[in-house]
Amino acid sequence: MPFKTILKNLMDSVPGSTGAILADWEGEAVEQACLYDEFDLKVTGAHKGILLNLMKDAHQKMEAGELRHAVISTEKQHYMLGPVGADYFLVLTLDKTAIIGLAIYHFQAAIDRMFKEIY
User: Fold this and answer.
1) Alpha-carbon 75 to chain mean position
2) Are strands 70-73 and 17-24 parallel, antiparallel or unpaired?
3) How far is the CA of 49 from the CAs of 28, 36, 70, 101, 118, in angstroms?
4) Residue 102: is it exposed, middle or buried by C-beta count within 10 angstroms (0-12/13-18/19+)?
5) Which of 56, 105, 62 lies closest to 85, judged by CA?
6) What is the model's pLDDT at position 59?
7) What kind of fold does domain 3-118 have according to CATH?
8) Domain segments of the chain: what residues?
9) Which has the closest alpha carbon to 32: 2, 71, 63, 75?
10) Which one of 31, 45, 76, 82 has the largest count of C-beta atoms within 10 Å of its C-beta?
11) CB neighbours (10 Å) of residue 77?
């Protein structure tokens, strides 16, 4: 299944989602889908990739196990981020109306589909 289809299916499955991006370990966009400017999503994706790498490093030092995903909530929106294997990551942007539990379920399913496509 093409990455664009996986991203669009993720957004369609999660009410309140506003963007989804698959990026490589350097923060370069592989594919994205969004309801706003794609450049803004690429910048957001690259920034969240840096945060994800910092969180992964911290978890390895704490021997807490592999990081599966993280949710960052701000006053205006939520961000979900998670690794797709060792070389890629997924970021989902959500407005404040999104149901986080539902988003986590579909986010992890999208990561699993992407992992199968890549590896």
Assistant:
1) 19
2) unpaired
3) 9, 19, 11, 22, 18
4) middle
5) 56
6) 82
7) Beta-Lactamase (3.30.450)
8) 3-118
9) 2
10) 45
11) 16
Handedness of CA 57, 63, 68, 70 (dihedral sign): negative
SS3 assignment for the chain:
CCHHHHHHHHHHHCCCEEEEEEEECCCCEEEEEECCCHHHHHHHHHHHHHHHHHHHHHHHHCCCCCCCCEEEECCCEEEEEEEECCCEEEEEEEECCCCHHHHHHHHHHHHHHHHHHHC
The residues with which 88 forms a beta bridge, in sequence order, are: 24, 84
Q: How many Cβ atoms sit within 10 Å of the Cβ of residue 91?
A: 26
pLDDT tens for 12-67 read 999 999 999 999 999 999 999 999 999 999 999 999 999 999 998 888 878 777 88
Q: What is the pLDDT of residues 56-109, one digit of tens each?
A: 888 887 877 788 999 999 999 999 999 999 999 999 999 999 999 999 999 999
In whole angstroms, what is the distance from residue 114 CA to residue 10 CA?
11
